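Collaborator request, handled under Task 6.
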Amino acid sequence: MNDMPEQVLITEVLLRDGLQIEPVIVPTEDKLRLAYGFLEAGLTSLEIGSFVHPDKVPQMADTDRLAAELCAGESASLHTLVFNERGARRALDAGARHVRLIVSASDGHSRANAGVPTRQALERLRPAAELLTQAKVQLEATIATAFICPFDGETPPGRVVATAHQLADLGISVLHLGDTIGAASPWHIRRTLTAVQAELYDMPLGLHLHNTYGMASANVWEALHLGVRRFDAALGGVGGCPFAPGAAGNIATDDLVNLCHHAGIATGIDVDRLVALREELHARLGRKLDSALAAVPAAPVPLRPTAVPG
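Structure tokens returned to the collaborator:
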């Protein structure tokens, strides 16, 4: 256990990845209430929406309004997703200060998600990155299907490394690797992470995990031993990709916080407030949530301290 970190950064992605596939479109006012609730619970990083065409993902049609409301004077990192220059301009108009570029490592998913193969999707991101960099927006990036693609099968680590290099050239400060369909195992995590770490050893890495086959917590544990300190998660295990057949929800924030706290890893998140937010989410969605903790009345044993050291 001596290679475990003292703390990790959890980015709550419910408002984007969590809600983008829900059949019920959550009103903007409810999203704002959830966002402020997350901040009050101690989360310092939220993914609040995606600048995509509302006809493709109507659940994200209010991202401009969310960003304009939340980013004004807020000290937390509030991320929005951008796929092209048009999205970058919308992000700037809305006052976004933290943007994630996103591209798929596999051509099959890139065609489904962005309408073009990976190479062309990366070309589209260049003018977007230049525009955002000029505006001094903090740039991060996510590589979708970094481990397995629903169309192309296993993604070769070399392809992920090549994509990572091109994103690094765009000036990103953090790179996230996505298990978009939740099919990766700890072996996939180690194989690809170590390949990327060997080539981009100065780049902070994060993981965006889905839990389709129940492996997300095991993948977090593997990644922690490999030095990863950033993880995306969605409260209640909500989420999925509309362009990735078979993808289930994200690793649940409540389950991830529980895992970290039992291992003595601080998150800075107030567990009681998180539970209250989960109950609120359950009522708003009107369905059973997918996290393990949503099915039980309390954590099985007392948690260790939750405060971030220092």
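The cover message to the collaborator said: "The first helix runs from residue 14 to 18. The two ends are 21 Å apart (CA to CA). Please let us know whether this matches your experimental observations."
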